[in-house]
Design the sequence.
């Protein structure tokens, strides 16, 4: 049987998180009533001129630096010509021969610790089209141009990806990165991050690439994986039965879990690109690139490595804490204040995340500030309270009851650490329990829990558990 | 040599309706334009920078500020058909 090798390249449309559109002053806010955010420029009315949004340019520059790309000191906007009702001008303003970002890369970590390099051929600035609604008006399509002119950065890889899983890994990493550097909200339901997949297969010993298909508008990680898997299997089946792959644009149907040809794009391949005479070349100065370099944050991948090596965190904890900028900065702040990175990591990945999940809320550092969490961790570290008490205190902090020290004193949660006081409790329990003492000494270790439980009960939960343990053990083992 | 079929394809891409009777004249005229371009192609441009725009100026950038208001009602007075805020077009099925 022939061995087949999939060859995959992705084009990801990253919606840039600007307030206004790429060439007009219309709002880009999601969810407005149809066509209320479509200006004369977005509608392509005669006599209007596009002017580039400075922030969209800044974001493209930041992205280019984050993927170690070459930034074009001069890039050019071009018209991509095709007719569709949601493209009012009859062309999309994009970049073609001279895009702003060229030849970058992402490094995908492999399980063995090595990395696979995915080359990013280019990333270009362009405007989004509008939205067509086909199921609202019988016999007609409704056109909403609120999205027309929304800034996109289209990120195009070389065909370096070799499986559906690898494609998803790349896409997830890109998703984390663009959110981390603050250029995209990453909201896939709202279409802020969507993907076209170019897929072909070739025989394992063949050097020539096979004919590829392009599957469009994949807006979830799962759909990307399923669509690519389907496409690989479909192409292998055709080739093995002696058929030929047709180069075409396809759509993924999640309900049927299959891809099928997109009829409307059949003769749209000739886009007749030419430089847009309405827009002058976009020039980048050395100064602005240096300035962007200065504001580029330490990236998730570097942070993750640092959390493992410098702080000794487990790989999973390091990855999750480094995945979002607010969380990473929160974690680092708590760590800086306590000098206890592992405890900080445990509190955030445990208590904080559990409550966020429960409340179905997004992370917000203001709920319990880094300073407050650090103060709480310090009270556990100096044995003022036990971990169990600390969780009660944290609950109260989460409810907005204030700072840990105040909560500890208001609730009388101060832990008993006085050696003599605990000793007295231990001695009392042991004196009352000759039977259990005999059992323990006869080798029944389980009885130990009874002693700890009784002592803690007598102290109304306030005795320091470690001291209780140590003392009981010492007493029971004493001859 | 430019074929009639190519001219038909170009007309279709540009959404220009052309009667069969108009085709021969269009082929001849377009062939003439292409011949002129061929003539320009023959010039040695090795040392010439590609020109994207005749003005030697950089693009001006605007601040990322929302400056437009909702003027849907005004803009839609021009549209042949609208409903519930949408522009209506003959159904395009995907």
Sequence:
């Amino acid at each position: 049987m022939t061995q087949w090798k999939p060859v995959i390249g992705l084009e990801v449309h990253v919606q840039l998180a600007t307030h206004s559109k790429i060439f007009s002053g219309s709002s880009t806010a999601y969810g407005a009533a149809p066509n209320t955010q479509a200006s004369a420029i977005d509608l392509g009315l005669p006599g209007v001129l596009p002017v580039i949004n400075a922030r969209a340019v800044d974001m493209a520059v930041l992205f280019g630096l984050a993927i170690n790309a070459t930034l074009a000191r001069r890039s050019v906007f071009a018209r991509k010509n095709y007719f569709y009702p949601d493209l009012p001008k009859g062309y999309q303003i994009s970049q073609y021969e001279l895009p702003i970002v060229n030849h970058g890369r992402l490094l995908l970590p492999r399980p063995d610790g090595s990395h696979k390099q995915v080359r990013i051929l280019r990333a270009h600035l362009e405007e989004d089209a509008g939205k067509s609604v086909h199921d609202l008006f019988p016999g007609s399509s409704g056109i909403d141009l609120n999205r027309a002119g929304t800034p996109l950065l289209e990120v195009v890889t070389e065909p370096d990806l070799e499986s559906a899983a690898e494609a998803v890994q790349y896409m997830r990493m890109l998703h984390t990165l663009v959110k981390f550097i603050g250029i995209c909200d990453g909201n896939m339901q709202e279409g802020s991050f969507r993907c076209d997949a170019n897929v072909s297969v070739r025989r394992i010993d063949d050097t020539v690439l096979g004919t590829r298909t392009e599957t469009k508008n994949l807006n979830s990680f799962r759909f990307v994986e399923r669509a690519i898997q389907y496409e690989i299997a479909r192409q292998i089946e055709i080739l093995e039965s002696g058929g030929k792959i047709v180069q075409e644009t396809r759509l993924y149907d999640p309900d049927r879990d299959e891809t099928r040809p997109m009829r409307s794009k059949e003769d749209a391949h000739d886009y007749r690109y030419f430089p847009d005479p309405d827009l002058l070349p976009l020039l980048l100065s050395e100064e602005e690139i240096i300035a962007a370099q200065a504001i580029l944050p330490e990236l998730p991948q570097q942070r993750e490595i640092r959390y493992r090596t410098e702080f000794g965190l487990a790989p999973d904890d390091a990855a999750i804490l480094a995945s979002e900028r607010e969380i990473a900065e929160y974690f680092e702040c708590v760590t800086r204040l306590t000098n206890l990175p592992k405890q900080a990591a445990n509190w955030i990945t445990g208590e904080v995340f559990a409550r966020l999940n429960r409340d179905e809320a997004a992370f917000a550092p203001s709920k319990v500030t880094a300073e407050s969490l650090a103060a709480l961790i310090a009270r556990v570290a100096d044995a003022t309270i036990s971990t169990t008490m600390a969780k009660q205190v944290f609950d109260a902090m989460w409810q907005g009851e204030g700072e840990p020290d105040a909560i500890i004193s208001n609730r009388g949660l101060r832990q008993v650490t006085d050696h003599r006081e605990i000793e007295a409790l231990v001695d009392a329990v042991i004196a009352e329990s000759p039977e259990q003492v005999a059992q323990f000494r006869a080798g029944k270790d389980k009885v130990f829990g009874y002693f700890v439980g009784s002592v803690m009960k007598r102290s109304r939960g306030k005795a320091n558990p470690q001291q209780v343990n140590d003392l009981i053990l010492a007493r029971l083992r004493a001859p | 040599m430019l074929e009639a079929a190519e001219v038909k394809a170009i007309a279709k891409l540009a959404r220009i309706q052309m009667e069969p009777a108009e085709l021969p004249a269009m082929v001849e005229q377009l062939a003439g334009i292409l011949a002129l371009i061929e003539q320009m192609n023959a010039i040695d441009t090795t040392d010439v920078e590609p020109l994207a725009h005749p003005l030697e100026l950089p693009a001006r950038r605007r601040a990322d500020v929302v400056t437009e208001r909702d003027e849907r009602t005004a803009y839609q007075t021009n549209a042949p058909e609208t409903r519930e805020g949408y522009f209506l077009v003959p159904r395009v099925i995907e």
About this structure: The helical segments of chain B are 4-13, 23-41, 72-76. Chain B touches chain A at residues 9, 12-13, 15, 52-53, 55, 57-68, 70-72, 75-76, 81, 83-94 (CB under 8 Å). The two ends of chain B are 37 Å apart (CA to CA). Chain B has a mean pLDDT of 91.
